[in-house]
Design goal:
Elements: E1 2-8, H1 22-31, E2 40-47, E3 56-62, E4 65-70, E5 75-79, E6 87-88, E7 94-100, E8 103-109, E9 115-121, E10 126-129, E11 137-144, E12 147-154, E13 163-169, E14 177-178, E15 186-193, E16 196-202, E17 210-214, E18 222-223, E19 231-238, E20 241-247, E21 254-259, E22 267-268, E23 276-285, E24 288-295, E25 300-305, E26 313-314, E27 323-333, E28 339-347, E29 354-362, H2 366-377
Antiparallel strand pairs: 1-2, 2-29, 3-4, 4-5, 5-6, 7-8, 8-9, 9-10, 11-12, 12-13, 13-14, 15-16, 16-17, 17-18, 19-20, 20-21, 21-22, 23-24, 24-25, 25-26, 27-28, 28-29
Length: 388
């Protein structure tokens, strides 16, 4: 672990914790205007890569718990903020894609070479198989409370429409629900929070994907695809906003995208003339988005935005020169305003270049924490409920 340069991030409290109550979100947002915009905080970079692994990637985070995978062998990995704290959820090939409190979710490769949607429950990581009978593959890609979302794949002749099905579970295989939009060829759910589910679908196997927003059912899916775009994907969601990317040409560059529930609300986070020249959002929390982007100065890597194109900051610049690229997949903001971003960085100073799991941590200034505490104290009866 090492602390690096100062970075002016504006008002740290503007990036409020997740809550289920809109009134609390509004109150915290209003309260934050009193915090000086010149507040400064320090990023700390934590190398999560275990000494026993050849490669590792961190994909999700919930407060001071991180999830992902390592290889040698391939196992689902869980960290508690340090490299030495790593534990494993399964002895077979597994990936932890999402977590909520003590529960984790993702996928496990079975002996027949197919994926099973996986739910590891509680501190003991009790394994539950969520793949429905007859499905070829299934994976959990996001979770919120007791609900998991992801995808299920059916082979032709299985009795189900072939292709991928956007899927929602309620903690058991019997709670499996098909959320495929009517008339779609295949669909996927990538993320969930209290405001809905984000994902993508396409009308046929030859047509491009459209970013989409669900509200718990296959009916009424909102197509987020911007006018003039070739393809789009929604891969993250937080507080009524969805994040992902848009492509204007087939096989063309990606532009990081942010929506607020409709196609018309599309915000290009990598516009012409901005600090970035292309990218994608992979994770969100509060008003913070993370992913990867190229920058106009020729650099690029794991990137964090605070709701606007101008706020983009290259987290990759906080790494040593031993790392030649990086990407961010998940972000969490706790009730104290601490921001944790997880992802990986490519270590290129060895005979065997490889990805290493990384975490970037931003702790707000003490004055900001005091302001948050005072604001919460004034909200008697309106207490946030954390993701657990």
């Amino acid at each position: 672990m090492y602390t690096v340069r100062h970075y002016r991030c504006g008002n740290p409290l503007k990036h409020h914790p997740r809550t289920l109550r809109i009134s609390l979100l509004a109150a915290v947002s209003c309260m934050c205007v009193a915090v000086p915009r010149e507040a400064v905080a320090s990023w700390t970079v934590v190398r999560l890569h275990p000494s026993t692994a050849l490669e590792s990637v961190a994909l999700c985070v919930d407060e001071n718990t991180q999830g992902g995978w390592t290889n040698t062998p391939n196992r689902g990995a869980v960290w508690a903020g340090t490299s030495a704290s790593v534990t494993f959820v399964d002895t077979s090939w597994a990936v932890v894609k999402a977590m909520y409190g003590p529960d984790k979710a993702g996928k496990v490769l079975d002996g027949a070479g197919h994926y099973r949607a996986a739910l590891w429950r509680g501190a003991g990581n009790e394994f539950l198989d969520l793949r429905p009978a007859g499905a070829a593959d299934a994976a959990v890609l996001g979770m919120f409370g007791t609900i998991q979302v992801g995808e299920t794949y059916w082979n032709t002749g299985s009795g189900q429409r072939s292709g991928y099905h956007a899927t929602l579970w309620n903690g058991t295989v019997d709670g499996w629900q098909d959320l495929s939009p009517v008339g779609s060829s295949d669909s996927h759910l990538a993320a969930i929070d209290a405001s809905g589910q984000a994902g993508l679908f396409r009308a046929s196997v030859s047509s491009p994907y459209h970013a989409a927003l669900w509200h718990g059912t296959a009916a009424g899916v909102v197509d987020l695809h911007p006018v003039g775009a070739y393809s789009s994907q929604a891969q993250a969601i937080a507080n009524g906003r969805q994040g992902g990317y848009v492509q204007y040409e087939r096989d063309g560059p990606r532009t990081a995208a942010l929506w607020s529930g409709t196609a018309d609300s599309f915000l290009d986070l990598t516009p012409a003339g901005g600090p970035t020249i292309g990218g994608a959002v992979y994770g969100m929390d509060g008003n913070v988005q993370v992913g990867g982007a190229g920058f106009a100065d020729g650099t690029g890597g794991a990137t964090i935005w605070f709701g606007t194109p101008e706020s983009a900051f290259n987290l990759g610049t906080l790494l040593s020169s031993d790392y030649t690229s990086s990407i961010a997949y998940g972000v969490d903001i706790d009730e104290f305003g601490t921001i944790r971003v997880v992802g990986s960085a490519y270590y290129n100073r060895t005979l065997y270049p490889h990805n290493e799991a990384m975490m970037w941590v931003l702790v707000p200034e003490p004055s900001s924490i005091a302001a948050l505490a005072a604001g919460l104290a004034g909200l008697a009866g309106v207490r946030p409920r954390r993701r657990r």
